Amino acid sequence: MTPADAPVLTALVLGSGGGGGVPQWNCNCRVCRLAWDSDPRVKPRTQSSLAVSADGERWLLLNASIDLRQQILGTPAMQPKGEGRHSPIAAALLTNTDVDHAAGLLALRERQPFTIWGTRATLDTIGANRIFDVVSPDLVPRRAVRLGMPFEPLPGLALELFPVPGKVPLWLEEGEVKTDAIGEGTVGVAVEAGGRRLVYAPGCAGVTDDLHKRIEKAHALFFDGTLFTDDEMIVNGLGDKTSRRMGHMPVSGPGGTLEGLARHAHVRRILIHINNSNPILVEGSPEEQHVKAAGWEVAYDGMEVAP
Description:
Elements: E1 10-15, H1 30-36, E2 49-53, E3 59-62, H2 68-73, E4 89-93, H3 99-102, E5 115-118, H4 120-128, E6 142-144, E7 151-154, E8 157-163, E9 187-193, E10 196-201, H5 209-216, E11 220-224, H6 232-235, H7 257-260, E12 268-272, H8 286-293, E13 296-298, E14 304-305
Parallel strand pairs: 3-4, 4-5, 5-6, 10-11, 11-12, 12-13
Antiparallel strand pairs: 1-2, 1-14, 2-3, 7-8, 8-9, 9-10
C-alpha cells in the first residue's frame, strides 16, 4: 500500500443531539426557546450519529439516527455519486436499539446494499420487530459481533465492541429497570485506522475499568453528554427522571463525566448525544465554559474529527 492509499481515520458528526434533537419539536425550555428564536448561541442539532471512514469514500454509520435523511441532505460525503443508485454508506453499526439510534434504518429501505452490524442481542431486538424487514435482509445482511472480538466492517477500518453500563431502550422497559446493566444491550465502539484510534460511547451509565483502558489507548473520544446535572429534567419541569435513571452519566457533579474521566487529559474528548435541555448547548454559557475548562469539546452537527 502506497502512502497515498494508507488508511486515514476520519469521523463526521452527522448528529450531536439527544433524543428529539435541538430544538425538540414540542419543547420550549430555555435552550429550545433560543433555538426557536434562531439565537446564534444555540446551533440546531439532529439526533446523534457518527460516520467513520478509512478512505473518505466508504463510510460506516455508528448508529442510524431517526434524522438520517436530513443528515444525508446536509453532508456531501454521504450523498450518491455518479449515475443511478449509489451510496457512500457501506455499513451501519448499532450501539443499542434506542429509537434515536436505530429508527434511521427505515430511511435506508430503497434496495441499496449495505451491512448492518451489532451484537446478537441488538440484532435479535431489531429482528423481532418486522417493520425493520423493509430494509430487506436479502440485500442488507445483518452480522452479529461478539464483544471484545476485533472485526473489519470496511477495508482498513478495524472495530471492537465492548460493554458499557446501560439499560434497555425506553420502549422495552417493564417493571423494575436496571439502569447500569453490563452486557450486549449497550456497547461502546473502539475504532482504528492508520494507527489512529477513537472511542464512541453515546450512551453510558458509569465508568468501568475496561472503559478507562479503551480511552487510555485512544486519540479521540466521543462520549455521552446527555444531561449536565443529574436532576436537570426535574428542575426544568420536563420530566420526573434523573440522568442516571435514564441510563446516562450526568456531565457534572460527583461521579459525573468530568470527574470520572478527568485522568484522560491526553485524549481529545468530545461530548455527544446532548439533550435539548442541556445548558452546554448555549455557547458562552457558564456550563459550556465549565466543560471547556475541563478539557472537553461540545460536538455539533457537521463537525469533522481526524484523530
